[in-house]
Amino acid sequence: SSRLEDLRVKLENEGLINISYVVVNHQGTYSRKKFHLLKESVSDYITVYQQDEQQADVWTTLNGNKDDFLIYDRCGRLVYHLGLPYSFLSFQYVEESIKIAYCENKCGNCSYTEPDIDGICENITKKADEKLAEIELEPADQRSHHHSPHRHRHHH
């Protein structure tokens, strides 16, 4: 959860603002006892949600598992569902998925879009293109093998 805070700050510094982050704590007894530690490991900008023992499990309802990242666009549509190992924050999958969901403009003009989003997203695309160009310049036998995260196009 502290890495999520680091990612939140990084993205905000890059201009990606008004993103909602929610950590859903497991409803089991052990997790409920550790809730305060989880809450203390993130800033007030990240909501930590404690499930009630009597409610339907959020992860079951969302067809997810502990440690998954569900990334929604500004209209509330699920864009990415990242499970292990793609949900490890030491990899770039979560960060890149958030950037894509933030910058994609699937529905045309949107009242939820930030005013300066075009410049921010152009900058992100430019940096991604530069990274891709660097990788393409490396000899094929020196490239590391990357897998793409699983992308969902669910409309809710």
Automatic annotation (TrEMBL):
InterPro entries with a match to the protein in the record: Selenoprotein-P_N (IPR007671), SeP (IPR037941)
Superkingdom assignment: Eukaryota
Domain Selenoprotein P N-terminal: 2-156
Record localization: Secreted
Classification via Pfam families: SelP_N
Composition skew (Basic residues), residue ranges: 144-156
Keyword tags: Glycoprotein, Secreted, Selenocysteine, Signal
Presence of keyword Glycosyltransferase: no
Protein name, per record: SEPP1 protein
